[in-house]
Amino acid sequence: MFELIDSIKNEVVDMRKYLHQIPELGFQEVKTSKYIKERLESLGFELEVVAGTGIVAFKKGTSSEKAIAFRSDIDGLRVKEETGLPFASKEENHMHACGHDGHMSILLGFATFIASLPSIKRDIVLIFQPAEEGPGGAEVIVKEGILKKYNVESIFGLHILPDIEEGKIGINYGPIMAQCGEIEILIEGKGGHGAMPHTSIDTIYVTSQLISSYQSIVSRNIEPIEGAVLTIGKINGGEAKNVIAEEVKIEGTIRAYRPEVYNTIKSRIQEINSGIEKMFGVKITTNVIDMYPAVNNDYDLFNIMKEALDEDEIHILKPMMIAEDFSYYQQEIPGFFFMLGSRNEKLNYIYPLHHCKFNFSDEVLGHGVKTYIKIANKLGII
């Protein structure tokens, strides 16, 4: 079985090199989509365009009415590449800095393997999804009814991760990635001369009190055993050294594993804002943008993964505060998301996701394809 994978490894590597050069932002993946479609057409899959630039490939099995789905994200990031690779991005200030070029190539390699078989026992659906980095293509695909149309029973996805050693597969059940949201807060006061602060309402000072109060939410309003993060990552306010700022804008992120915890953070932000308004006479406008739900891995699929993998491959994954829109599929059907280790210090593949020098070895691609084959074999697809 795996001898065939070794024979198509070079093809998978070549696909990755090509896709790496054409990173495109969410819902703009026109060239990427065209390439994927042409590859899948040549392999004989039934195809459907979804979510604008996404592609769904279907192959009928011989003995089941329910399908198993495998998903890859296809979008790039607004990052200027600094890897120095001979196949570096040709798109100015865009890069596949999160491994999606690898994810696509692995799934295309898996498709090549499936197409080489005389038949398969169970229906299979391959989802090439746009806009994982934002604003989120998985939700669109779910709303378009793709899972129901193809009678998908469960879904699998992977992500290359440099925090895990190359050759290892990170797995666990329950929440492994966080629900996330973005916050935008505008504080409006009264500007004036820096030498006469008593005639003004200083929004810089008010903002400092606001941020300080926010820090009490996770430490004092959330049970210590819960996982939660509230980070203010951006502040913009003021015009000159000797001018009291009339307004300040701050932006940040909320992360939590459970909706109840996430909603508590949102409520406390509003309550603190209301109190600060009364204390200082400012106006505070709050906008919370709810993003992706938590990635919550199915326990039964976790056990299937453990049985499918070799014992020395398994890395028990700790929950992470990063987010992934694979979670939208899991709200509809059982799903399992796992991490494909890529850390290789000898080859200097140590840079984190979204870094301008992020890269991984060709061996990671072959390992990914083999893992999908192991899952397919365990589930009786092949």
Automatic annotation (TrEMBL):
Its cofactor is Mn(2+). InterPro entries: Amidohydrolase, Bact_exopeptidase_dim_dom, Peptidase_M20, Peptidase_M20_dimer. GO terms for biological process: diaminopimelate biosynthetic process. Residues 184-272 form the Peptidase M20 dimerisation domain. Keywords: Hydrolase, Manganese, Metal-binding. Pfam families: M20_dimer (PF07687), Peptidase_M20 (PF01546). GO terms for molecular function: metal ion binding; N-acetyldiaminopimelate deacetylase activity. The Mn(2+) ion enhances activity. It comes from the Bacteria. Mn(2+) binds at residues 98, 100, 133, 159, 354. NCBIfam families: amidohydrolases (TIGR01891). This is Amidohydrolase. It comes from Gottschalkia purinilytica (Clostridium purinilyticum).
